[in-house]
Amino acid sequence: MKYRLLDLLACPICKKFPLELIVIEEKTYEREVQLKNKPFCELYCGLKMVKIEDLDITPCEECFKKEIVTGVLYCDKCGRWYPIDEEIPRMLPDELRDEKYEKEFLRKHKDKLPSKILLEGKPFNLAE
Q1: DSSP state string for 62-85
Q2: Taking a C-beta distance cutoff of 8 angstroms, is the pair 75, 16 a contact?
Q3: Beta strands of the chain (E only): which ranges?
Q4: What domains does the chain contain, in order, with CATH numbers?
Q5: Of 35, 61, 95, 105, which sits with the fewest C-beta atoms within 10 Å of its C-beta?
Q6: Residue-wise pLDDT tens digits, 62-77
Q7: Distance CA 80, CA 114 (A)
Q8: pLDDT of 39
């Protein structure tokens, strides 16, 4: 997943923006980046995790070289979490989510995730 997606994504359930990002694994690619219009994002810098208006210097060139391979998007308003797996954010409504897959994701990454997700996250957590 590209960091700049955080400028667009909101919780599909409660519509909270921006979502909190927890990166478990990222890759950096050597890419030639020349941006004419900076900042590229309009409201939120996902790489620095701040509003665009709060940045002195925008890290757009650095951002374009990075990809989140594994991580979690977390909504602190409704407590839902969404896995990022193989660079794909899986942001489905509760009824379409796969409990077995998501609990296995939590177990696999439990050392890198906060208890608010592991033990209290919705719709699935490891305390159940």
Answers
A1: HHHTEEEEEEEEE-TTT-BEEEEE
A2: yes
A3: 20-28, 44-45, 50-51, 66-74, 81-85, 88-89
A4: 3-118 (2.20.25)
A5: 95
A6: 999 999 999 999 999 9
A7: 13
A8: 86
